[in-house]
Amino acid sequence: xxxQVTNLDGLSVGSVTLTDEVFGLEVRTDILHRMVRYQQLxxxxxxxxxxxxxxxxRTGKKFVKQKGSGGAxxxxxxxxxxxxxxxxxxxxxxxxxxxxxxxxRALALRHALSAKAxxxxxxxxxxxxxxxxxxSSLRASFGKxxxxxxxxxxxxxxxxxxxxxxxxxxxxxVLPVQGINVVDILRRExxxxxxxxxxxxxxxxxxxxxxxx
Length: 213
Prior knowledge:
Layout: E1 2-6, E2 12-17, H1 20-23, H2 29-43, H3 102-118, E3 122-125, H4 135-145, E4 150-153, H5 160-166, E5 172-175, H6 182-187, E6 190-194, H7 195-212
Parallel strand pairs: 1-3, 3-6, 4-5, 4-6
Antiparallel strand pairs: 1-2
């Protein structure tokens, strides 16, 4: 697949060919679903915690005789049925993360990239480097390019001025190429890759394929 390379002024500065091994797969939504679920569960903090019966600060003394009271038999006031008692079967601090093989995670990223390529939602730019960190000028450029909802991936290091100028623009996410992930790709309408990001992505999967073979 061949795409035009543009700059932030919308002018064409060349073309690139996307490799079918990364951008030309037949998209499988089941793999994408597994990866999205994996990322979302891993991101959950899991810090929910209640006080159980053993965590209460009330006395543990038996407050009513075993027999002769005419009521139920009770031990102490920390039982869940009493006000101020511990909660029964409440949540505890734990990790919600699930396992997903590394090869499936890598495959899911390729399917996400392929999904954007098939939908015509991948844009290749020469560079996003800015001479100054000015949000107003960058917003104007995005308006000309119709980038109202986009994920922008730069090389190993994102240009500092660009990152600073773009961080206040809603619906625009900026990541280095190491941070590219399925959830962020799917949640934005357009995927913008710099030449450096594209080269790094293709090199990453070529290296993994050679290691697997």
